[in-house]
Amino acid sequence: xxxxxxxxxxxxxxxxxxxxxxxxxxxxxxxxxxxxxxxxxxxxxxxxxxxxxxxxxxxxxxxxxxxxxxxxxxxxxxxxxxxxxxxxxxxxxxxxxxxxxxxxxxxxxxxxxxxxxxxxxxxxxxxxxxxxxxxxxxxxxxxxxxxxxxxxxxxxxxxxxxxxxxxxxxxxxxxxxxxxxxxxxxxxxxxxxxxxxxxxxxxxxxxxxxxxxxxxxxxxxxxxxxxxxxxxxxxxxxxxxxxxxxxxxxxxxxxxxxxxxxxxxxxxxxxxxxxxxxxxxxxxxxxxxxxxxxxxxxxxxxxxxxxxxxxxxxxxxxxxxxxxxxxxxxxxxxxxxxxxxxxxxxxxxxxxxxxxxxxxxxxxxxxxxxxxxxxxxxx
Amino acid sequence: xxxxxxxxxxxxxxxxxxxxxxxxxxxxxxxxxxxxxxxxxxxxxxxxxxxxxxxxxxxxxxxxxxxxxxxxxxxxxxxxxxxxxxxxxxxxxxxx
Lengths: 379, 96
Ligand code: SF4
Hints:
heterodimer, A: 16 helices, B: 5-stranded antiparallel sheet
């Protein structure tokens, strides 16, 4: 248990690992961590190496950069290429591959693409450049969407006429449901997302135990939080309980942030369908601007191609996002697909399972690649 | 990009009810606190900041822990801090 020594409180970590081991007994358990932040912690701190072998963690769809389908990136690039537009987005989105290049290549070819830290920065750029049109490429779950919503409220209040949002905001519950419905994955429970839950709270997850009979424990981002959440999941299973529990109560309130939810509801409405990378179209999973905000909606102000583009053949992000395969089991992992030259989205953001594994995987990279190849050879 | 970075509220803006100056790892920038309107934030309170918005009020212990964790993350944290520092918005609005 060498890696445990690196944890903030090695004694507590050891105790938790012992507890997890005892709770497991000889049974096998598979838990999914929904959130990319958790995936990052798990790889960064080698959590898989301190857990007993019969507890397997699979990575879920909770990295907002990873779930953007290629067609939407192409739409973004088309918008960025419109004459006179200043196209703004978060840094991570610049490298997400579209079918022909990414936003960085569009920028190199002359499009005015700028990365911003906050949607408010995009709004400020619009205020400072009244003769230009500024589009903000918005991505993210309920963690990020309220920020875009408040920015839009401000843009409306201040009558900023040259600011629009290309909304790709998504909600956390529909992909969870899609995963629960997917026949190729057997799970024993979920480590629920931390920061999304500060906004949505705990009630939206209740369908997981009530309809699918699986426990869910919302967890923080410390290695100890993850271990604690796993032991809480196992305790529920052993005690015959099946509930939504909150391990991260020091930050996440039961009811979430009602104000943020109200602001979300004021600005956004659900799309009938939204495409997810690797998960296909999921009903009522994407957010678009309400008609009252039509003037700020890039999809209404501009011609967006809206073409559905299939993922590249080599890309197995879909399977990674559903937890069906591990990052290193993808054929191009670490060879054609690296953080410098990502083929799929999971290799772009540090919260993407592939990038996190590539960067922090405790195995030597070459070993990981070889192991990946070997796994493919043995059926 | 889903990182939440802890910061401490240093000053409330007189011009804009939703803005506060928040110190994050030695950098002070303006942060929108509109999502925490119901929290009655006070000077010295700690908040978790995500894309320029305070998204949750946290206690000091959580803040210290989260900061340590983020520092251990290395590059991802550095990138986020760098983005926060170089943010157009903060320079335009006069924050340092
Ligand atoms: S290695 Fe690249 S293509 Fe394969 S699943 Fe990961 S990100 Fe997608």
